[in-house]
Amino acid sequence: MNDYVGASKAVAKIRMSLPTLTDTEARLAQVLTEYEFLEEKTPIKEIATKAEVSEALVVKVAKKMGFNGFSELKSAILGYRKGHSADLYSEISPDDGLKSIATKVFRTSVQALEETLAILDIDAVERAAQALAKANHVDIYGVGGSAQIGRDVSHKFLRIGRRFTVQDDSHMMMMSASVLTKQDVVLAISHSGTTTAVLEGADYAKSNGATIIALSNYDRSPLAEIADITLASTAQGGPLLGENAAARVAQLNILDVVFVQVARLDGELANERLARTTMAVSNKRKHS
What we know:
Keywords: DNA-binding, Transcription, Transcription regulation. It comes from Cohaesibacter celericrescens. The chain has helices spanning 3-17, 23-34, 44-51, 55-64, 70-82, 98-119, 122-134, 145-158, 170-179, 196-207, 222-226, 244-266, 268-282; strands spanning 138-141, 164-167, 185-189, 211-216, 229-232. It has a 5-stranded parallel beta sheet with strand order 2-1-3-4-5, with helices on both faces. The chain folds into 2 domains: 3-87, Winged helix-like DNA-binding domain superfamily/Winged helix DNA-binding domain (Arc Repressor Mutant, subunit A, Orthogonal Bundle), CATH 1.10.10.10; 119-282, Glucose-6-phosphate isomerase like protein, domain 1 (Rossmann fold, 3-Layer(aba) Sandwich). 60% of the residues lie in helices and 8% in strands. It contains 13 helices and 5 strands. By secondary structure, the protein is an alpha/beta fold. Helix 6 packs across helix 12 and helix 8 packs parallel to helix 12.
């Protein structure tokens, strides 16, 4: 693993652990990741004082994030800052011109893609593809922007002859879940992993035997706890862009990988159906 990928994984680990932290622990995490004077020689006491917490809590939070201790966490943050990705993201300001805005928007998406690739669980992708390939029926649960991701996925899979149904209403999700069986799959999409309608629908579907695939920006979210398979993106954001915009790009790419693998599993049948669906809409395009 090269230093850049390793640092990206480390910082993604920090970001994805945030939903599991208390308010005090989250404040400490913010100090750790934003402290501009952080150096390899920075003592734990300095960070504890800055965050107004005990040194013991600093060690506890480092371990909660998946590191051996404060020193490993500090090294991960410093390694990330040294990599070129550390300079990719900066929040849009009132003084930015359109060129600067475009650059920041694009670079935020590039960063999300690179970091998501660094932490992508290939085994989970394979299991998700296998589950979708074998499913009798697939329902996609999501609201707002997550529902739009679901519609893109539904459109993509229809191209190879697989019909996915998008449910973006809490009542429809519960009705769907009530009739699913162990031969069926739910693809539950929630950026935060805490969307009530998606959680309730996925939980009910699972109680009826359906396989739950979660797609979220946090791999320790309540949705991930329900899921049989979790596909995680990682994206940071600020007041204007937020996380969702960049995460949406990363999540669409994750599902593109799953789509390609399902098509591979389907083999010639996928190619045949792709040719048929492409032909079906070809006369809807204006030719010169």
